[in-house]
Amino acid sequence: MSGVMGDAFSLLLFRLHSGRLLGINLLKVNEVIECPPLTKLPNRHPHVRGIATLRGAALTVIDLARAIGEPGRSDSQDGCLILTELSRSRQGLHVQRVERIVQCSTGDVRPPPAGTGARAFITGVTQIDGAIVQILDVEKVLHELAPVTPAELDVQVLPDTERQLLAGRRVLVVDDSHVALQQTLVTLRKLDLDCQAVRSAAAAMDLLLTQQAAGQPIEVLVSDIEMPEMDGYSLVREIRRNPEIGQTYVLLHTSLDSTMNTEKARAVGANDVLTKFSTVDLSQAMLRAFQRLA
């Protein structure tokens, strides 16, 4: 797998008040603005600085430093907002300053160091001009503010014929985000699917080949797009090149919501693409997959 270079993507680099250097995928960024006046609501989450009104719409502003475990400066009027839209939500991340946009390859992004822990709030680490850049796990930040419980992941009630179509069918989920992985697994297992899970594209390739050799092939792969070392696009290319597993049905499941992602997913050979996170949409995507495989 070392021959896979990975896809190029753009990172927006920014710093927190502590000077910590972080990056966020530019596709997750709508715009960067000066911090506007905020309305501070009573009983708000301690990581929420307040509510801004932007073009007539309310926007939750998150103190990113506090959200990832650093001392915040909730009364400071300096800094700026990175406006993000992902996983069907829109919010502003308050940071000290934005520095620049850089190009890098997913092949140059490494997983967080061993022992970093579940509260690291980063999905990977890369090096830009000799400086270490930590890539922000925005999904984890949002989950900490508004955790999704298993009860909230109830799937739609399916007719018996459709449930029978899904029951016991083999699915592999790959996602480097623990939060996203668990949400997906809970939903799929409520559909009576036989699910396995891994945290990297390389591990997904290994398991696909192992299961194929054992005579129990994975029927559907549900893969994140943004992953260190090898992203979802590169994973699909590798699968399609391999005659043993090249016909595997692949659903790319991403927090990024844009026509460009859909077009690129189709171009590399993905069967379907879906924006996180909707239990109903994921259930319907599984039905489409197994109806096609029936």
From TrEMBL:
Key words of the record: Phosphoprotein
Keyword set includes Coiled coil: no
Domain annotation CheW-like: ranges: 8-147
Domain Response regulatory span(s) in chain numbering: 170-291
SMART domains, sorted: CheW, REC
InterPro entries per the UniProt record, alphabetical: Chemotax_regulator_CheV, CheW-like_dom_sf, CheW-lke_dom, CheY-like_superfamily, Sig_transdc_resp-reg_receiver
PROSITE patterns in UniProt: CHEW (PS50851), RESPONSE_REGULATORY (PS50110)
4-aspartylphosphate PTM sites in chain numbering: 224
Protein name per the record: Chemotaxis protein CheV
Organism encoding this protein: Pseudomonas benzenivorans
